[in-house]
Design brief:
Blueprint lengths: L1 H60 L1 H4 L10 H6 L10 H4 L4 H10 L19 H14 L8 H9 L5 H11 L1 H4 L10 H8 L9 H4 L4 H10 L19 H15 L5
Keywords: Electron transport, Heme, Iron, Metal-binding, Signal, Transport
GO molecular function, one term: heme binding
Pfam family, one: Cytochrome_CBB3
Amino acid sequence: MIRTLRLAMVIAAFATAAMAVSCAQQTSKAAADAAAAAQAAADSAKTAAAVQRGQHLFLSYCAMCHGDGGAGDGEAAARFQRDSVMVAKLNNSDRMDKLTPEELRKVIAEGGGKTHRSDLMPPWASRLSPEQIDDLVQFVLQLRYMNPSVPSATLAAYMAAPEGVPADGRALFVHHCVACHGSEGKGDGPFAAKLLETAKVQPRNLTDSVYFKDRKDSDLYATIALGGGHFKKAVQMPAWTQTLTPAQMKSLVAYVRSISQTESK
């Protein structure tokens, strides 16, 4: 009987220890998830701020040749064309997809002559700080998505992706969107006040059923995939097509449908 009692006590001790380890692991995972979500939100806010600063720099230093939207139609472009020099179209996906961010940074910093392009493209490293060049890179990377039409490839990816899952969309939203849109999607994230103050941009209230009830799912998907600038809206809304898969973006659409209490269309 004593032996049985001792065995029971040992088993109970092991069970208690196992439960303690399990609870510790769960707590650790929750803390890690929370830390990852906070870091993702901070990264999103940092990117949005860089795009905003980059836009100001672009309009000040680059738009004269490249045009406000990067279409190669700035005031000086016509003069260059008379000399058979075509200003690069920075909103051309075929062109820009061939450049990595590092290569783009090199072109801006060192100019066209040192990167096997036109000598008329000046080196900006002597005028702009490395941080400013980084901001310019972030903005220029968004220009390819600023053509108002939706590329056929974007629509094809939307059609091929499975139906979105609201719960999955919520997890993605917490990681990528709360910095601007807020934890409940009401446009009141920690970065919203700064956007309103500096850029006169108010993040969309994603719970606004009046706004979303007439929008198609494919339109919401395209805005997430291509960014606000593509549709002549806020460039601070980044294009997520290089960060998220089509399935993930459809899950974000499904989550927006759930919090706006609107039907899929």
